[in-house]
Amino acid sequence: MNPFKDKIVGVLMGGLSKEREVSLRSGGAVLDALLLRGYDAVPIDVGPDIAEVIKQKGVEVAFLALHGRYGEDGCIQGMLEILGIPYTGSSVLASSLAMDKHLTKDIVRQEGLPTPDSLFFDAHHEDLEVFLSKFCLSFPLMVKPSREGSTIGITKAENARELKVAILEAAKLDTRVLVEKFVQGREVTVPILNQEPLPVLEVVPKSGFYDYASKYTAGATTYTCPAELPEELTRTIQDYSKRIYRRIGCEGVARADFIIASDGLPYFLEINTLPGMTATSLVPKSAAVAGISFGELVEKILFTARVKVQ
Ligand SMILES: Nc1ncnc2c1ncn2[C@@H]1O[C@H](COP(=O)(O)OP(=O)(O)OP(=O)(O)O)[C@@H](O)[C@H]1O
Ligand SMILES: [Mg+2]
Predict the structure, then answer these.
(1) Gap from CA of 53 to ligand 1 centroid (Å)
(2) pTM over 0.90
(3) Is residue 310 part of a domain?
């Protein structure tokens, strides 16, 4: 019995974040897949009037194809809880926790798993000069807005002058800034679907930095799935991903990013609770290797829809 077969499925996309364009692509791909499988799916572009639009269109279940602020961080999830509309993926708490890289890393450390050393700067409550005067990590560093995606606002800093500029840049996007040790190594990512890790995927950006252009320009990055790694390391990375997914309380699909350093350990960078869902995104690529087609993947995610506060 499919509880969603006769329901109006709203595919929520676009939205108000810096990742709007990517989200429109994810949403378009999800919408096509749902229509192909016979669902009564409608596209919903998320704006300030979203609650009214959902009512007008008669949406009975929400498939979230949003990324970044207001979509991936618990905001839209909270609104759907209040409206009583089942939605896909992680809860309000898990979404907002995973959105904040600094808080997620603290939890990963508590779990005893490796993540690059880091410091946290709160531009709202701290003085930058005081923070810099006590700074104790060695270069190079990665400076990130704690709650952004798609590498937006992330800079590598090689010295104290660059560090200050990088923090000021990141703080324009988020008052919460993460300053993290740069880790040289191979970059891998692992989707977790309904508690179970999918094949590990290695990303090799041709420019050397997996930035916005490398992520969304065709041919700019080489992908290998399953990643060519020793079996034991693959199992370790999948085990770490599963533990992090559980500790954060994720549901549906999520995707954890790591860098394998020269000491052989996979260092956790972040976990995404609404990863890209275009037909060429990382999660669909890995799912395909596991024998799950894009349409099946979308349907499996749809089945995770529920209101989660009860
Ligand atoms: N500590 C680090 N050492 C080396 N490279 C890093 C580090 N942190 C981030 N990077 C590089 O920057 C990219 C973006 O970083 P990260 O995954 O933390 O941010 P994001 O913008 O939220 O990504 P996503 O698009 O996956 O949501 C990584 O994919 C990696 O290539
Ligand atoms: Mg990432």
Answers:
(1) 35
(2) yes
(3) no
